[in-house]
Specification:
Strand content: under 5%
CATH topology of the largest domain: Tetracycline Repressor, domain 2
Helix content: over 70%
Number of domains: 2
Order of helices and strands: HHHHHHHHHHH
Number of strands: 0
CATH superfamily of the largest domain: Tetracycline Repressor, domain 2
Oligomer: single chain
Length: about 200
């Protein structure tokens, strides 16, 4: 039996994920077919199915990769001397990294999850994981007296997620919105929301 080279296997897997991301961003989840993804990745359908069983499995892998990266960044944030400043900086950097196609892809997947139970499960599990990361960050910030101790960590995490998701629709509602100023106002909103009352005074 031929041994699988784990490095080459992961490289090919990532190549498929990158190709799928481009297809989803260009054509949407529904519009991008397995054939399209294979053509973009320059592989055969049989080869793709060796790595992923479906488009939903591809999305799940994309989400998992994003969550791992987010977990690493949150570990760095909570180790910072000023957790709020580090969090605000991360928000700004994240907004800069995500272009319009990425925002449109997220909104497309959220809409698709309404009618696709498999994708809905992926989205819901990812939301729970992100909320867990945010809530843990809030708890650690509260323990260090850098985040308002009166805030409920779980509910605060859910509200922050809603704010982040809502901001992604700004460019759709008004393409002329100044994105840089919007991001600056977002960080101001978050900082004022999380700062302990004694620190704010």
């Amino acid at each position: 039996m031929r041994k699988v080279d784990p490095i080459k296997h992961e490289e090919k897997r990532q190549q498929i994920l990158d190709a799928a991301g481009r297809c989803f961003a260009r054509d949407g989840f529904q519009g991008a077919s397995i054939s399209d993804i294979c053509a973009e990745a320059k592989i055969s359908p049989g080869h793709l199915y060796h790595y992923f069983a479906s488009k939903e499995a591809i999305v799940a892998a994309m989400v998992e990769g994003g969550l791992e990266a987010a977990s690493e960044r949150f570990s760095q944030i909570v180790d910072s001397p000023d957790v709020l400043a580090a969090f605000a900086s991360e928000v700004q950097q994240t907004k800069a990294r995500h272009d319009r196609s990425g925002r449109m892809l997220l909104l497309d997947l959220l809409a698709e999850a309404e009618r696709n139970p498999v994708l809905a499960k992926v989205v819901q599990e990812h939301s729970r994981d992100v909320r867990r990361l945010l809530a843990e960050f809030i708890r650690k910030g509260q323990a260090r007296e850098q985040i308002d101790a009166s805030l409920d960590p779980e509910l605060t995490a859910a509200i922050l997620m809603s704010v982040f998701d809502g901001l992604k629709t700004l460019s759709i509602r008004d393409p002329k919105i100044d994105k840089k100023k919007g991001t600056q106002m977002l960080t101001t909103l978050i900082t004022r929301f999380l700062t302990p009352p004694h620190a704010a005074r």
